[in-house]
Amino acid sequence: MPVLGFLKVQRLTRLTIKKTMNIDQAKKIVISVISKILEGKSKITEDMQLIGGESLLDSMNLVEVCIALEDLADEQGFEFDWTSEAAMSKSHSMFRSVAALAQEFANQSEV
Amino acid sequence: MIIVTGANRGMGQAITERLIEKGEDVIGLVRNSSGLKINAIECDVRDYSSVKNASKEVKRMKKSIKAFINVAGVASMNMAVTTDESSVQKLIQTNLVGTIYCCQLFAPLMLRQKQGSFINFSTIAVALALRGESVYAASKAGVESFTRTFAREMADFNVRVNCIAPGPIRTDLLRGITDTQIEKIISQQIIQKQFQKSDVCDLVELLIDEKAKSLSGQVLNLGGV
Fold first, then answer.
1. What is the value of pTM for the model shown?
2. What DSSP line would sit under B162-195, residue for residue?
3. Is the pLDDT confidence value at B190 over 50?
4. Is the pLDDT of residue A87 over 50?
5. pLDDT surpassing 90 at residue B15
6. How many separate domains does chain A show?
7. Partner A contacted by B61 (CB < 8 A)
8. Residue B135 sits in a domain of what CATH number?
9. What is d(CA B79, CA B37) in angstroms, rounded to the nearest whole number?
10. Do B105 and A83 touch (CB under 8 A)?
11. Which residue in B52, B104, B156 is closest to A60 by CB distance?
């Protein structure tokens, strides 16, 4: 196969992966992970806070969620970085809600 | 696997050699690996991206991490008023920030396996408030404080964090210190004896051993203070 043709295939493959991780799928994954860590004891909603007084997760649970998502990302062929400034920033923290975390998870699958 | 920063010289080299001698699988994190006979990853602990890349490389190895030993450090013996700006930054960035970067970026690997041990390095200069070591002692006091707090954060994951604070040990860090100054420091220890690198290696072996499972958040001062 000509080199250029190979590159096109690689690019197409990457595009296919991008399309497979949309926000709805990311939300399902995040909700499923949180639910598993909370042992199904609470109903997880998209606007549920992940940090702060309203959160059902303690700090240990939150780290477990991040590690589980990191492992799932590995399986999907991308890297999920939960230690970035975007993750930690107070105003734009991806931990401000389930939806925000799912959005970041989906975004990082496209990098 | 055990990871040692600053594994190519001084205390880091001694610890690495001891652990290899004991049959451990050791990886050194060093700024320059050329000519090194041990397994090593090039990494500058002062640089967040560099440490992050090293942690990714270790993660790809898919090996269990038994311990992470933060030995890389620099010293500068001077009064605060005669310490230049770049020396202050180098001391804080290498000794304190470098230790924090390594702990925070390698911790997730240990959290996942729910076991492991961090060993950080301080100095007796913190406890004794040694004159002429204010900036160095400040950087290491930060390491001690970080160790105690980080240990609490890691405890739920069965990861222990401790700190070794040696007195004057014969390494490059002691360059420029006279025998009289060394004797004066030793005279302030509970056990008034100059300890060696091998004594520090003994403590490292103890802290990574299952027998030390009750110890976390502790600062062990060689010789006692």
1. 0.89
2. EEEE--S-SSGGGTT--HHHHHHHHTTSSS-S--
3. yes
4. yes
5. yes
6. 1
7. no
8. 3.40.50.720
9. 38
10. yes
11. B156
Q: Are A93 and A104 in contact (CB under 8 A)?
A: no
Helix (H) or strand (E) holding B26: strand B26-30
Mean pLDDT, residues B201-219 taken together:
98
A1-36 per-residue burial string, b: 16 or more CB within 10 A, e: under 16: eeeeeeeeeeeeeeeeeeeebeeeebbebbbebbee
For the CA atoms of A37, A43, A46, A49, what is the dihedral angle to 10 degrees? Answer: -70
Residue bearing tokens 């898919």? B62
Report residue A86's pLDDT band, with 50, 70 and 90 as the boundaries.
low
Query: B29: which strand partners?
Result: B5, B41
Residues of A in contact with B152 (CB under 8 A): none
Q: Chain A contact for B184, CB < 8 A?
A: no
Domain range for B61 is 2-221
Residue tagged 């076991």 (tokens) = B115
Q: Which domain holds residue A34?
A: 3-109
Tokens of B117: 């041990």
Mean pLDDT of chain B: 96
pLDDT of residue B10: 94
Q: How far is CA B131 from the centre of its chain?
A: 22
Taking 70 as the threshold, does the pLDDT of residue B90 lie above it?
yes
- Which ipTM score applies to this complex? 0.76
DSSP state of A43: -
CATH code (residue A69) = 1.10.1200
